[in-house]
Amino acid sequence: MPILDPHSFEFISRSADQTRRVGMRLGALLQTGDVIGLVGDLGSGKTTLVQGIASGWGSLDPASSPTFVLVNVYRHPDGANLYHLDAYRLDRVEEAIDLDIDAMLTEGPLVVEWAEKIKAALTDEGLWVHMKYIDEEQRDVIFSARGERFEEMLSQLRRQIYGG
Hints:
The protein has 5 helices and 7 strands; from the N terminus they run E-H-E-H-E-E-H-H-E-E-E-H. It has helices at 16-27, 46-57, 93-98, 101-107, 148-162, and strands at 8-13, 35-39, 71-75, 81-86, 110-113, 126-133, 139-146. The protein has a single domain (9-162), classed as P-loop containing nucleotide triphosphate hydrolases (Rossmann fold, 3-Layer(aba) Sandwich). The chain has a 7-stranded mixed β-sheet with strand order 1-7-6-2-5-4-3. Helix 1 crosses helix 2. The longest helix is centred in the last third of the chain and has 15 residues, at 148-162.
């Protein structure tokens, strides 16, 4: 887990619905070219968060884990795409590069589960979300921004969640 600093904040989700609602708030902030890296063990809530992100971004497509297909594409009514990559089954960074991440980022935002496995293939800037299973209902979620655009996104998300 990262050490909390001015570029991070922690949120304790008390239900899957709450995780989805936070995802919806985050999804509403996304723009083409944004990268959201999700880190956390199986069962930590990554796919649940992505369901909220896709919905908040404006997709009517149901979000599900792309573990076996590697990439799911969720459509926005305006024609943009939200890419959902699951790096769990990737063994090498080159496999992620072969998926043409750069092309995805010209068409919409990219959300990556197990992002730490392909960190070298991702942009240096982005929002990283570290998720940890606490118990059946609760998840510890730490948002960390890298880069000015994502600092602003983090600030907006913090205000939406906590007010002020």
